Amino acid sequence: MRKKIALFFACIIWLSVALQLYLMLQNRVVSVPETLVRFFSFFTILTNTVAAVYFTVQFRSMHLLSGPGSLTAITVYITIVGLVYQIVLRPLWQPVGLQKPVDEMLHSVNPLLVIVYWYEFEARKQVQYRQILGWLIYPLLYLVYILIRGSFSGFYPYPFVNVIQIGWQQTLLNALILFFVFAGLGVFLIFLGKMFPERKSSKTTIF
């Protein structure tokens, strides 16, 4: 059953990522190579891709990426994707046509799928608070990448890190706030996971 769920979730997430790529290529205002670079410059796309890869790997072999904490880290990342979209980005634009359901998949449906899988299959009581520091490497590297590339290209994927529009001070303040949110959500999920009763399906030994 777990493999079937992983395959189903992987298909949904891969589909949403593929559809978003199709839409970006269809509506591109720059060259195809630049469009592809910009596509993978969105934290949403990168994180959904990470989740899709995780579920694909789980379907192929549950022994890979099955250590306690991997799924919790992905859950933190994609939950942030959903929260930032709902709170910050949703009021800024109104997608139409195919873009609307694709947006909902990437920012609402997929985060919920990961949360459900985390609740059902993560070995929650074995996840340690000290792991949170390592989880912050991914968003830190992402921030460095978009700031460096933005300084050359002028393209920043999100308004709250757009140095051109809001300046370095506000950008770094926004980034700092987000890092606290990442860490805080990590603490919350670990705490919550230890409060829930352990499920048989979440045991790391797989036969």
* Strand and helix order: HHHHHHHH
Could you tell me the radius of gyration in angstroms?
18 Å
Number of domains: 1
Average of per-residue pLDDT values: 91
Number of distinct beta strands: 0
Continuous helix count: 8
Shape from CA axes?
A: globular
Low-confidence stretches: none
Derived from helix and strand composition plus strand pairing, the structural class reads: mainly alpha
Sheet having the most strands: none
Multimerization state: single chain
| Gap from first CA to last CA | 13 Å
Strand % is under 5%
Report helical residue fraction.
over 70%
Characterise the protein shown here.
The chain is mostly helical and 207 residues long. It has one domain (2-202). It is 71% helix and 0% strand. The chain has helices at residues 2-26, 32-39, 43-60, 70-89, 99-121, 132-135, 137-153, 163-195. Helix 3 packs across helix 5 (99-121). The two termini are 13 Å apart.
In short:
The protein has 207 residues and is mainly alpha-helical. It has helices at 2-26, 32-39, 43-60, 70-89, 99-121, 132-135, 137-153, 163-195.
Topology:
Blueprint: H1 2-26, H2 32-39, H3 43-60, H4 70-89, H5 99-121, H6 132-135, H7 137-153, H8 163-195
Helix pairs in contact: 1-3, 1-5, 3-4, 3-5, 4-5, 4-8
Top keywords for this entry?
globular, 71% helix, 8 helices, 207 residues, mainly alpha
